[in-house]
Amino acid sequence: MNNYSAIRNPKSPSPSPSNQKGWDRGFTLIEIIVVIIILAIVSAISIKFLSDGIRIYTMTVDQKALFDEGKLALERMCRDIRDANSITTPSSGGSSSSGTLLSFTRTNATAQDSAGDTIQFILSSGTLQRTAAARPTVDLASYVSSITVTRGTSPNNEITISLTLSRTSSGEILNIPLSTKVVPKNFPIDLTYTYKNFNNRWEEQRST
Fold first, then answer.
1. Dist. CA 189–CA 109, nearest whole Å
2. pLDDT for 12
3. What is the rounded CA–CA span in Å between residue 133 and residue 105?
4. How remote is the C-alpha of 177 from its chain's centroid?
5. Tell me, what's the pLDDT at 4?
6. CA 140/CA 74 separation, integer angstroms
7. What is the DSSP string of the chain?
8. How far is CA 202 from CA 14, 168, 184, 197, in A?
């Protein structure tokens, strides 16, 4: 007997729903709700990872910007202080942490300053500034939360600068502490610190 009965005539009526053995069955409401809940959980976890990554990246960028700004400010201060031949603020063995932080007379002329100019570093409303004679005031660093300039007791005129920059980034407070020491090179030669002082004979080599 040929197996023609296995081939359904296209013109014959469709099988009844009871004979489809569940092939056309859809999703139930509970299954849809479960899928929605799972997708919501996965989405929440993914968003949390993304937001944390963006927050950490933003904090890292802001932290590096603070560090670079503070480092450049300290480098500028050190270059100026090395050329000093006398310091009026702070006094010998003293320190300053507000207002006029440092005031001294420079020895040699530069592209911006003249020989004998009085250079001052000032803290004003969280901004570290540099002033020189009739030159306009220059902002060296913002977000300065604290700065202390300490001078050694004469004849040791070594200057210690401690600087902290702070700002809020992505809801977190960033603190960048920096510190350095510098010795004025053009002070009169003394018997104790001779190797540090050059008695007005030191001058920074200008780049060409």
1. 21
2. 53
3. 10
4. 11
5. 46
6. 9
7. ---GGGSPPTTSPPPPGGGSTTTT----HHHHHHHHHHHHHHHHHHHHHHHHHHHHHHHHHHHHHHHHHHHHHHHHHHHHHHTEEEEEESPTT-EE-SEEEEEEEESS--SS--TTPEEEEEEETTEEEEEETTEEEEEEES-EEEEEEEEPPTT---EEEEEEEEEEETTEEEEEEEEEEE--SSSPP-SSSGGG--TT---PPPP-
8. 105, 42, 10, 8
Question: Rounded distance, CA 119 to CA 85, Å?
Answer: 11
Beta bridge partners of 182: 159
Q: Which residues pair with 144 in a beta bridge?
A: 165
Reported confidence tier of residue 203, pLDDT bands at 50, 70, 90 = confident
CA dihedral 195, 196, 202, 203 (to 10 degrees): 140
pLDDT of residue 154: 78
Tokens of 52: 């944390």
Contacts of 53 (CB under 8 A, 6+ apart): none
For residue 117, which amino acid is it?
Answer: D
- pLDDT tens-digit profile of 64-102? 999 999 999 999 999 999 999 899 999 989 999 988 999
**Amino acid at site 186:** N
Q: Identify whether the C-beta of residue 108 lies closer than 8 Å to the C-beta of residue 187.
A: no
Predicted structure pTM score? 0.74
Q: Determine the Cα–Cα distance for residues 203 and 143; give it in Å rounded to an integer.
A: 32
Report the relative pairing of strands 84-89 and 144-151 from DSSP bridges.
unpaired
